[in-house]
Amino acid sequence: MSLLEVNNLKTYFYTLRGVVRAVDGISFHIDEGMAFGLAGESGCGKSTTALSIMGLIKDPGKIVDGEIVFEGEDLLKKTKEELNQIRWKKISMIFQGAMNAFNPVHRVGDQIVEAILYHENISREEAWEKAEKLLEMVGIDPSRAKNYPHEFSGGMKQRAMIAMALSCNPKLVIADEPTTALDVIVQKQVLDLMKELQKKLKLSIMLISHDLSVIAQMCDSVAIMYAGKIVEYADAISLFKEPQHPYSKGLINSFPNILNPGKKPESIPGQPPSLINPPPGCRFHPRCPFATDKCREVEPHLVNIGNKHFVACHLIGG
Amino acid sequence: MDPLIRVEGLKKLFPVRKGLHSMIFSRKAEYVHAVDGVSFTISKGEIFGLAGESGCGKTTTGRLLLRLVEPTEGSVYFEGEDIFSLSGRELMRKRREMQMIFQDPYKSLDPKKTVKDIINEPLSIHKIGKNRREKLEIIYEMLEAVKLTPPEDYLFKYPHELSGGERQRVAIARAIILKPKFIVADEPVSMLDVSIRASILDLMIELKDKFNLTYLYITHDLSVASYLCNKLAIMYLGKLVELGATLDLVKDPLHPYTKMLISAVPVPDPTYKREEIRIRGEVGNPINPPPGCRFHPRCPFATDKCREIEPDFNEVKDGHFVACHLFQS
Amino acid sequence: MNLVSTQLKKAESIEISPFKEKLHLLGRSIKEFWKLYRRSKIGLIGLGMLLFFVAVALTAPLISPYDPWQRKTGEPFSGPSKEHPLGTDDMGRDILSQIIWGTRISLLVGFIASLSATLIGVTVGMISGYFGGTIDNILMGLTDIILILPTIPLMIVIAAYLGQSIWNLALVIAIVSWPSTARIVRSQTLSLKEEAFVEAARSIGAGHIRIIVSHILPNVLPIILANTVLRMVGAIISEAGLSFLGLGDPTHQSWGMILYYAQVAGGFIRGAWWWIVTPGVCITLVGVSLTFIGYALDEIINPRLRQR
After folding, report:
1. Is residue B111 less than 8 Å (CB to CB) from chain C?
2. Does A60 touch chain C (CB under 8 A)?
3. Among C14, C192, C210, C225, which would you mutate to test the B interface (most chain B Cβ atoms within 10 Å of its Cβ)?
4. How far is residue C152's CA from residue C171's CA, in Å, rounded to a whole number?
5. pLDDT tens digit string along C54-107?
6. ipTM beyond 0.90?
7. Which homologous superfamily does the CATH classification assign to the domain defined by B5-97+178-327?
8. I need a surface site. Which of A134, B58, B93, C301 has the fewest CB within 10 A?
9. C98: how many CB neighbours lie within 10 A of its CB?
10. Could you count the other beta carbons within 10 Å of the beta carbon of residue A174?
């Protein structure tokens, strides 16, 4: 059964310059214990998707349509109090640049304790013990709970952040570019840790990243987003081995591969479109080398081309 | 191939700003060993990659090579001439021959200047072009060279009116307008969207052939470096640990740190199962770097010798240097 | 040729003179600036009010009903009437005319004082921030001394020493008010000089003067603009204050001087409210209008305030 199902989610921002359709009708699901990757370039709406699930969309943004079904219940139909119970307890999030999310004047352990006490009815001592256990789980010496954030390296802060996200035993962890600011070696350590914890705690993970290599190494299923829409959605292996949508192909080809240094990375011509006035038809058509008149006029929908591989392109699957 | 740049024993220590407490209780001045004795040679026409994690000293090395920072010790020879011994006017002349492309095109262009003014500045500083018409002809040529066409569409735009890729092209045009021989490119694509990075790399390669450029390409991204560079040097805590032809170094890394670094690079292939290398510890402190080999606290093969004696940077294969006691004869 | 477009044809851009090019760019910036400024209601109200006072100052000879110095245009101490909408003073001089002419002096002193303060502050701040070291220590030491000394007594002392003229008044106000500008400019310069575009300029061989004048100054100015406008409020009030204390220029009638005469000639005791209230209202209105403008500018320049 799916743990999380997002159906036709639309999140718009009502700005002075017009309506920004940041997320414009996307659907996907995450099964229990699986890792789902949401990939795309900056401004494609992937972070907005995460914030929509977390209920953190702020004015002038608004979820205008769709369903977010978690454990069989639509989160968008719940009251604020009910949501607070679910969010953070059952779904938690690791933010982009989370290393800087610690308050520099409080000890790391105390900050984790606060997070635990906010949701659980236990004594301070019990919470501190739990915080130490959590730190140990993410590979930090529990005695360092007494340290202040500046005494931690970037990688350790990110680990501590993960510990905090796991403090209430969530079922789903949303990680928004969790390693973007980290060096490769530290990134590897953090990703390995996330993978290990996923297996150990039977977590579901939603990993958001612009870096397809990171997604390839972490995720079971992947969706590629472009200008507020999902253009391709499949299990990781078939998406990386047999990408169908011209944008997915282009994005995969734009990554150099250290195992194959001779391979020339290819760029995609042009720029991602404005989300206020997206191009009609397929939003990728101005940058697509195969665009036809149909692409310029009619919007393609995600079509199953077999084996639960979905593509939104007129050229594929009739 | 002729050497264009020869770096010898380059060192840069930055004094650490001290708080009141340490000023009262300790007399010893502390320094960040940003670059700590680095030597290498860049040949004409090469793309020389300098890779390492943040804080390893790669950016400071790049700045030293252009004398944007004064060194603590060591020399940089540009076509045989030590750039640190040059006086004001000689340095001005040399500046024409070496330029820099910066990491963040959102910050490296003056927000109050038009594209024309930005590209024109090197011309007016070095008094190139007899009159306005001649200068504009050169500006047009450069804008066309970096594929900002038609140039008149860009001439009077401000940086905030351009996309990231376009800005980086403007920055490149400014760097090449003096027809330099050597360019230091400091992570020029890391702030750009993935889908346009390759086009900037292609442009750099094209310009290299067109204007006979030599690049020092500073990066933390080994995937890009492995595609772009002929030669690759790996830096760790202010020192070079390995240097060699890119393919050689990437396929067959010798130094344990290089091995660890390369094994950590993510690969866009979900089926790839790599040889697992356990990563130990974290990068040491550049204020008090570990004695002996700086990598020894993290190295699975460290011996007592590694803990005490600093390894030399030796050529172990043709053109493949490594600083590790495991490979010293 | 449309000067306010982004594009110029190749031939045009080559043939166009440097002056026309600057004009073209200036036109564009003003247009863009106005597009943003127009959105601020407060800014528009402030600008309207200020323009009214400027118009009054410029057309003073045309619109003032009497010569402000002429005596016995009516009964002394007479209240507002048809002939004298704002009444008369102890010698029967028309107060409306005095206010109209006073607008000139008050605005002029405020303008000159705040502009000179900005000029000094920007110069000191940029030099101090850019070069650092000993120069910085000396200049900032001086700045701090002036900042620490109590403003009013300091102004009184300098004004008394320099003698009474509107130029001296402007000078005195400038002398005591540049340090805060210098502080702001210095901190801006400190961060600007670390910017990548400054390093880029150095790498192409730009010298200190070019970097300061061509790269740092244009980036400092917009931030200082709002500050300058707000400083004018202070300058106008200071002028009024100094004049009221008898340190003003007796040959010119500023709003402050009107208050001074009112006090000396017993306007306060005899209850001649028209003589006292009007200059006060004028000072307040100009102050409010400049504050509104400064607020609107701040909103445009400081992007964090420019939401929605």
Report:
1. yes
2. yes
3. C14
4. 14
5. 999 999 889 888 888 888 787 888 888 888 888 888 888 888 999 999 999 999
6. no
7. P-loop containing nucleotide triphosphate hydrolases (3.40.50.300)
8. B93
9. 27
10. 27
